[in-house]
Amino acid sequence: MTVPAPGLVEFTRPQDLAEGAPLVVLGPALGTSVTHLYAAVAPLLAERFHVIGWDLPGHGVSDPAQEFTLEELARAVADAVTEHTGARSWHMAGTSIGGAVVQQLLAQDPERVASAALIATSNYFPDPRMWRERAELVASAGTPTQVIGCAKAWFAPDFLAEHSERGTPLLHDLQGTDRFSYAAACRALGGFDLRERTRVASVPTAVVAGAQDAMVGPDVAQGLADALHARYEVVDDAAHLVPVAAPELVAHTITELVTAAR
């Protein structure tokens, strides 16, 4: 095992940071950088909050790591945020594997999480064999093997044609991701299962799904929301990368959760 060291991205300029502003921490999806995934969300949040994001190992600004569990990744994210900001708790939003990290922290270190926005995510990602096979393929042939499939899964039909400036940078992120770190993240997802540890949320929580998401369908997201007794929202025109398709809705949801927690 190599201890992951998530790199952090500041979305709020120091000169714009209001004293006592709530801290919001954004988490990415597999194959993306947090910078591009929340490019249209973060500026809306930064008007009121201190907003930072973290990148997966070998993605974006993070150094590679070749083996880790989601439990280790969640702990590393929490440690990095505390070291960077001095905060002991914060509001969290995460997409896909980023949402799994939020859930992992809720299970293992709940006092860290003041509110939770769980986007296009689940407490279990079937099936382990598929994740192992994907890990083996990417480790041997690289992340470009995933571009066509991810383009179809990440975005609703016609989205890339109509909004190439929002979608293309994410596909470039995928191509530039360290293949061994991507493979390690696949194995971590294959070993992730919080179904027996999912409890009614003790903090304001929302589950947001894309109606056209073939990776984590609305029925799966609805089941997670029911288990958590969380607010549930479906975005009609979104596939897997909801923050790219519906940035205003995502920002509004996070803002409402932060407000409810205060």
Question: Any chance you could write out the topology, listing elements then pairs?
Answer:
Elements: E1 8-10, E2 23-27, H1 34-37, H2 42-45, E3 50-54, H3 70-85, E4 90-95, H4 97-108, E5 113-119, H5 128-141, H6 147-154, H7 159-162, H8 164-176, H9 179-190, E6 205-210, H10 218-228, E7 231-235, H11 242-245, H12 247-261
Task: Explain how this protein is built.
By secondary structure, the chain is of the alpha/beta class. The chain has one domain (8-261): Alpha/Beta hydrolase fold, catalytic domain (Rossmann fold). The chain contains twelve helices and seven strands. Strand 4 (90-95), helix 4 (97-108) and strand 5 form a beta-alpha-beta unit. The protein is globular, with a radius of gyration of 17 Å. The mean pLDDT is 96. GO terms for molecular function: hydrolase activity. Residues 22-159 form the AB hydrolase-1 domain.
Individual helix count: 12
Q: What is the number of E strands?
A: 7
Uncertain ranges: none
Assign a percent range to the helix content: 40-55%
Anisotropy-based shape:
globular
Our count of domains comes out at: 1
Which percent band covers the strand fraction? Answer: 5-15%
Q: Which series of helices and strands comes N to C?
A: EEHHEHEHEHHHHHEHEHH
Structural class call reads: alpha/beta
CATH architecture, by name, is: 3-Layer(aba) Sandwich
CATH superfamily: Alpha/Beta hydrolase fold, catalytic domain
Strand arrangement within the widest β-sheet reads: 1-3-2-4-5-6-7
If you average the pLDDT, what whole number results?
Answer: 96
Q: Kindly, what is the distance between the CA atoms of the first and last residues, rounded to a whole number of angstroms? A: 38 Å
Biggest pleated sheet: 7 strands, mixed
> What is the highest CATH level, the class?
Alpha Beta
Using only C-alpha atoms, the radius of gyration works out to 17 Å
According to CATH, the fold-level topology is: Rossmann fold
Pfam families: Abhydrolase_1
Keywords: Hydrolase
InterPro entries: AB_hydrolase_1, AB_hydrolase_fold, Carboxylesterase_BioH
GO molecular function: hydrolase activity
